Each structure stands twice: as structure tokens, then as C-alpha cells.
């Protein structure tokens, strides 16, 4: 599902809201989650999951074409851990991947 599809679904489920208002709400939520992660904070949405940032140490990687060693700087990356309710809901419908 894309961001625009999410906005369309939410607007359809909430006909009392205008589409541009739903778009503003979704954008504001995403912006706030992004800003919190940029500050190094944890964002927990009960029943859905938690967004955190993880530190990746500097390392020596390899150029896939040449095999030559390449220095990779340390970095901070976003990380998502699904909550129990989300995992259970996803698993209720069964594994249909590859069918």
C-alpha cells in the first residue's frame, strides 16, 4: 500500500473528512514519527509496533564488482519491530506467499 492509497482508504472510511484533511493528518503523523527518530527517540504505536534507530558501526565492506575493500562509515538506521497484535493479525490469514 502506498501513501496515496492509505489516504484514499482513510478518506473513504471517513466520509465526514475531506480528502485534503486526511492527507494532512497522514503527512503530519509521518513527519512526527520521522522527526522523533531523527532525534533518536523511540516511537511506539500500541498494537502495531515500535520504531527505533540502531547504530551500525564502521566496517570494511567490499565493492561487489571488483571485490576491492571499501571503508563504510558508521551510521544510524531506522528499525521497526512489529507488535504482538500485528504479528497475530498477519499470521491469522495464513501464509499465502508463493501461491
Automatic annotation (TrEMBL):
InterPro entries: Hist_DNA-bd, Histone-like_DNA-bd_CS, IHF-like_DNA-bd_dom_sf, IHF_beta
SUPFAM superfamilies attached to this UniProt entry: IHF-like DNA-binding proteins
Stored Pfam families: Bac_DNA_binding (PF00216)
Keywords: DNA recombination, DNA-binding, Transcription, Transcription regulation, Translation regulation
PROSITE patterns: HISTONE_LIKE (PS00045)
Subunit: Heterodimer of an alpha and a beta chain.
PANTHER family listed in its UniProt record: DNA-BINDING PROTEIN HU, INTEGRATION HOST FACTOR SUBUNIT BETA
Protein name: Integration host factor subunit beta
Species: Endosaccharibacter trunci
Lineage: Bacteria, Pseudomonadati, Pseudomonadota, Alphaproteobacteria, Acetobacterales
